[in-house]
Amino acid sequence: MSVLSEFELIERYFRHHGQSRRDVQLAQGDDCAVVKTTPGTEIAVTTDTMVAGVHFDDKVPARALGHKLVAVNLSDLAAMGAEPAWLSLAITLPKADHTWLSEFSAGMHELAGYYHCQLIGGDTTRGPLTLTLTAQGLLPEGQTLVRHGAKPGDWIFVSGTLGDAAAALAAQRDDLEISSAGQKKLEERLFYPTPRVSLGQALRGMATSCIDVSDGLAADLQHILKRSEVGGRLFLTQLPYSDTLNTLSLEQKRHYALHGGDDYELCFTIPEEMRGSLETALTHSGVDITCIGQIDRQPGLRFFDGDNEVTASGLGYQHFGMATL
Fold first, then answer.
1. Which of 67, 153, 178, 276 lies 20 to 30 Å from 4 when distance is taken between CA atoms?
2. 263 among the known binding-site residues?
3. pLDDT in tens, 271-299
4. Domain residues of the chain, as ranges?
């Protein structure tokens, strides 16, 4: 196959994939993309970078990388209650590997198309493999979900199940013994996370605070507590696990659920008076949620095993520190 120029590479892999939003006036091909918004609409913006050798290795399929790059950004939008709209990709490649690019772009376009968001621009350069995506989403004015609104008495909820991605990484590093079938199921959660976009939008007007669980439940929940200037009790017996994680010991699955990263579930707080509305709003969402604790006034996050307060050591993923995974 002949060597492609930068513009030919963009044309082949990152344009014209059957999705066209009416609010996109100009996409790739000019110096800037141009979009339009409607009155009473705000724009949420997030950026995430994945670096080879830091965030992923050659065990990760190219299609999974494309999927995950979109998913982690849409998860941030979901945590704000935003509707995904536009994506911009900055990709640095050591070489133009056409097989890799075909799979990577397919993973991107598949998930972006599902959530009706369009790739409208970006940049392509040569160098160590680095993937950066900026996602923009739309919000009704004044309805943004934030981290700083939790109040004493609010209930703490989490979507889905926790710990699978961290357990998958541990199995890949031979730090966890599990069947090949079990490891495959765990890796599916690691490689192909599901951003909780519809849940985030359903929480607008109900949740007092929200965050996506990317660095571990214990670490991310503490961001809410710190920003809201409150404390919280976490009920360890109510942590939600997948069937695969339930094959592990109690100590193992609690560790992965509390301190593992890459879950991309939503953790949010709901006032007592909104619990009934929450159940009604999520009746047809297809997303399971679990009440795992309660906000109070005592500073910090405290862990309870039944009626007994216990300690829980470890931290979530830290970009410039030691991780426990």
1. 67
2. no
3. 999 999 998 888 877 899 999 999 999 99
4. 6-140, 155-310
